Amino acid sequence: MLIDVDKKRLRDTFLDLVRVPSPSGKERPVADYVIERIGGRHKLIEDGTAEQVGGDAGNILVRVPGDGAPVLLAAHMDTVGPCDGVEPKIRSGYVVSAGDTILGADNKCAIAAFLEFLEVADSADKRRPVEVLFTVSEEVGLLGAKHLDYSLLESKTGYVFDTSEPPGHAVTSAPSSDILTAVIHGRAAHAGIEPEKGVSAVQIASAAIAEMRLGRIDHETTANIGEIEGGKAVNIVPAEATVKGEVRSHDDEKLAAQVEHITKRLEEAAERFGGSAEINWGPAYKRYAIPYDAPVVTRFANVCDRLGLETAFIPGGGGSDANIFNVHGIESIVLGCGMENPHTTDERISLTSLEKLAKLAVELAKANG
Question: Which CATH number fits domain 177-284: 3.30.70.360, 1.20.1250.20, 3.30.70.2190, 3.40.50.970?
């Protein structure tokens, strides 16, 4: 038997949440809202991640007892900007912002769904133990998940509610990502009097980038140069420039090959113009690929069948907390939430999607399925 969720309470919870600004590192108001809503009904822990990431709130873990193997439900509390003064409105069955801010459906729709699950959790006759995790600073590098003390978790399977696909869709694979920071060194000179004595770091960077393979490399791999900074004045040959970028791939060998390609282009350009390059790569997150017959996938498919949701399993192009959970031995997939146009002022979500998310959380917690 399906457990009903309170549509009005769910809607009001979501509207409350999006009105509260929570940029990365400043999630305290949302964390306090979550803690207040849970009250003393369930065991709750806030960890020490705030100090480690320079924020004002830690990850919040809520434990709901049950029988059998525990399951993890996860969402993140931070949003991108602009998120101050969000004025949610309901238009034709959709929640939207006034148009000058994001809405914050990414990821507060999931927080609202989890809070509704926690309201009705005791209605289930049989329920697995559930660990509900609200992470911080996801949008700026999955920092909450990276700094979580994993000894706190007992779950070996998890569901991360955090993609714009419709409810019923799931991301079962995601790429690895390496981040580039390169400092190009040239030599300063007066640009009008003696430019011949200078070596332009900006020119080195530009020449290297012009020779790089970027964008969609193949069906598994992408590369991007996203930031360039250098120079002090228009009449000075720039002595230094900084280039930042990323490579993503579902194949580790392809990732390594693209990293090597970009590195060589920077080194060759620096040598050609008489400069040098300090090139640093660091891992952002590690790929995962969950087979379709894995319990975490088949359970989700069974729940969607009970709820009448059309299922689809797709590869992802970005990173999420699921990348980190899988590295730590928690087999996790990312579930579609139905938010549209996330990270823009045109962001919206339907009330129907909100209801489906809450029901998904409730059904995934049941002992059967």
Answer: 3.30.70.360
Q: Do the domains 177-284 and 7-174+287-364 match in fold?
A: no
* Domain boundaries, given as residue ranges, for the chain: 7-174+287-364, 177-284
Q: Which residues contact 186 (CB under 8 A, 6 or more apart)?
A: 198, 199, 200, 201, 202, 203, 204, 237, 238, 239, 240, 241, 273, 274, 275
d(CA 79, CA 76): 8
| CA-based torsion, 349, 352, 356, 358: positive or negative | positive
Tell me the C-alpha distance between 255 and 176, whole Å.
Answer: 8
Residues 20-56 pLDDT 10s: 999 999 999 999 999 999 988 889 999 999 999 999 9
Catalytic residues: 78, 138
Q: For residue 106, which amino acid is it?
A: D
Helix (H) and strand (E) counts for the chain? 10, 17
Which fold, 7-174+287-364? Aminopeptidase (3.40.630)
Secondary structure element (H or E) that encloses residue 12, with its range: helix 7-18
Q: What gap in Å lies between CA 237 and CA 246, rounded to an integer? A: 27
Q: Please check whether residue 19 is in contact with residue 85, taking contact to mean a CB–CB distance below 8 angstroms.
A: no
Burial degree of 314 (CB within 10 A; 0-12, 13-18, 19+): middle
Q: Could you tell me which of 325, 327, 321, 330 has the C-alpha nearest to residue 143?
A: 321
The string of pLDDT tens digits covering residues 143-163 is 999 999 999 999 999 999 999
The reported pTM is: 0.91
Concatenate the DSSP letters of all residues of 262-320 into one string. HHHHHHHHHHHHT-EEEEEEEEEE--EE--TTSHHHHHHHHHHHHHTPPPEEEE-SS--
